[in-house]
Task: inverse folding
């Protein structure tokens, strides 16, 4: 876990105070997130954030001492998007986990660079709230603590993996729109390879059993189809967890977040 030079997490230090501070940690984090959303996480630096704020880099260090602190603030700001409003969290374990999973996935799709960017960031207050909410979702299952943690880890693994593949599919779709000729040539190459006889399973899948047909089956490439696949997979994972862990089937919220 990345910490500051003195080993004290930024959350354990009071925010620099004055009656009218020029900047706040929340405002600095918001600017850093905007940079990452526009240009990628690699573009975020203390110097760049300071420039966006029309401030000197040394002035920014008064509020945020290190790059690790800046990343921690960004991570914690994103975690607010993964929180289900307290009044809306379902009492049923399955419905509640579905809500948490949907909110977390939606956050990751809005900020796809975050999937791999925060692996060593500090565990902040909103991350703790997210964990607390997740534990509350499974509190009534009757499972032992270790089993509750395993259930949460199972859902987390599915959500992050699904988000990763979803982002990849959306990027491939964008590439197809931007460079149709290159994509067409790649598809033609793939079809020629498939028809060589070296890939009979792929050929059967793509042609529906008709070797003379063109490729007709592929992964979802539009947001609606990607979301539908996520929903089917999530419920399949929850079905398996209920069966394996001896849980009541539970209910499913019918409306994903917009």
Result:
């Amino acid at each position: 876990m990345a910490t500051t030079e003195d080993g004290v997490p930024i959350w354990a230090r009071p925010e620099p105070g004055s009656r009218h501070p020029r900047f706040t940690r929340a405002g600095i984090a918001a600017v850093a997130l905007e940079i990452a959303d526009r240009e990628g996480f690699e573009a975020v630096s203390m110097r760049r954030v300071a420039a966006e704020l029309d401030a000197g880099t040394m002035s920014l260090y008064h509020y945020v001492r290190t790059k690790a602190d800046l990343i921690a603030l960004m991570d914690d700001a994103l975690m607010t998007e993964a929180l289900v409003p307290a009044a809306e969290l379902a009492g049923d374990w399955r419905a509640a986990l579905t809500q948490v999973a949907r909110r977390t996935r939606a956050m990751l799709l809005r900020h796809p660079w975050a999937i791999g960017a925060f692996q060593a960031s500090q565990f902040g207050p909103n991350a703790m709230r997210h964990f607390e909410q997740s534990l509350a979702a499974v509190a009534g299952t009757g499972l032992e603590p270790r089993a509750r943690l395993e259930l949460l880890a199972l859902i987390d693994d599915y959500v992050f993996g699904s988000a990763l593949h979803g982002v990849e599919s959306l990027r491939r779709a964008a590439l197809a729109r931007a460079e149709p000729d290159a994509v067409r040539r790649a598809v033609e190459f793939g079809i020629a390879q498939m028809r060589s006889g070296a890939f009979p399973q792929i050929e059967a899948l793509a042609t529906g059993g008709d070797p003379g047909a063109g490729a007709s089956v592929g992964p979802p490439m539009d947001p609606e189809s990607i979301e539908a696949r996520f929903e089917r997979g999530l419920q399949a994972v929850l079905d398996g967890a209920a069966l394996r862990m001896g849980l009541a089937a539970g209910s499913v919220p019918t409306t994903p977040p917009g």
Remarks:
- The first helix runs from residue 25 to 39.
- The domain at 10-79 is CATH 1.10.10.60 (Arc Repressor Mutant, subunit A).
- The radius of gyration is 23 Å.
